[in-house]
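Collaborator request log, item 7. Partner lab (contact: R.S.) asked for a structural prediction of non-specific serine/threonine protein kinase to inform their binding assays.
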Amino acid sequence: MPGLGAQAGTWEEVKRPSPDQAPAGKHEGNGRRTWSLLSSCASCWPQSPRERNAADNVSPNICEAKDAAPGIESKEGPHVCTVPPVDQSIDACKLDATEHSKNEAGPVASSQLRRFCFTELQLATRNFQPDSLLGKGGFGCVFKGWIDKHGTAPVKPGTGLTVAVKTLDHNGLQGHKEWLAEVTFLGQLHHPNLVKLIGFCIEDDKRLLVYEFMQRGSLENHLFRKGALPLPWNTRMKIALGAAKGVEFLHSGKRPVIYRDFKASNVLLDLEYCAKLSDFGLAKDGPEGDKTHVSTRVMGTQGYAAPEYVMTGHLSTKSDVYSFGIVLLEILTGKKSMDKSRAIGEHHLAEWARPFLMDRKKILRIVDPRLEGNFSIKGAMKVGQLASCCVRRDQRSRPSMSNVVQTLSQLQGLKDMASTIYPSEGQGDSCPPQTRPDTAPYQPKGF
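Returned to partner:
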């Protein structure tokens, strides 16, 4: 989910309006990019002027009397906040998350989510002010806000708990079903490598989600945003391992959860570059028993979706493995999953990289040049070999996410930097060259 972190999100190209239409004052310096993003988020904001100005004349304590029964108006002096009943479909769509108790913290019950009224989030984001805007995704716009550390009341900016508030864009690509999926999955699954869902708001046609704030933004921004400093090699390996652990956790239950939308923009980073998966709007329960897949409508992002899923609609955990392999290639090469400026037949990163990945000595040729040789030789070779295994056309020969985690765990903190050491011969090979790379079973060795 783009936008939960600082400067996260996709900046859409929108024609800049005339000067008298553009935001005035201190926001002028943000230029075309900020105004483009604001313009595309108009449908996320309250529609009526009265509703937009509500927060300007309301006490911060407007909702502090929310202990009344759901659906009952709570009053404290002249201020009123109506808390509508929660959509019954939230209770009707619960997961059996106890299977994921491998995490020592255990699953988080949906009853532990905080329930906000709209006015509280309006105040927390300073009435959805432009300078609170973080980004925009398929669901809608994301704003920075501040709330009480232990409750739902808005607090002064810079105090309390910093959060990211995602609002539903009724003209966007996602809707109530995706909002409900987020509440269902993230409300009951808890892991250090999943973004924490703090609470939600459902009032009339308004749908909002409140997440922990991720200070470093998205992996996509660090890899591809113009002017961004290149991520150091060891930081890239830390991010890859953290993201892999998040997907492994989702797959670990008796009935796995298939993420279905693993991509660089949905990998968010905290202050210490700990990777956390976000945006569970497309997540789906996986197959049970002896079933190998579930059949579903094809959804996701071009360039990341597994080919067998795109062609047949058959979804399995190996679909997530393929998507992870694409992101691993992005981390290795610094190139986007889709780039139409590449030669015909090579627009897709996997197809462009495949000839290099089949020869481990050629892998070093496609390492992100911005690293200027400051990468581990052994690490780069192993990452290339692992990515090659993940993006095999035959899904049965792709590794499990547990295998991926095992491999990446052994690539942390390597010091054989290419800028100072020439690669030695005889290193182990995850995908033996004498076997066909698209059919050989995954057998990690040589670590």
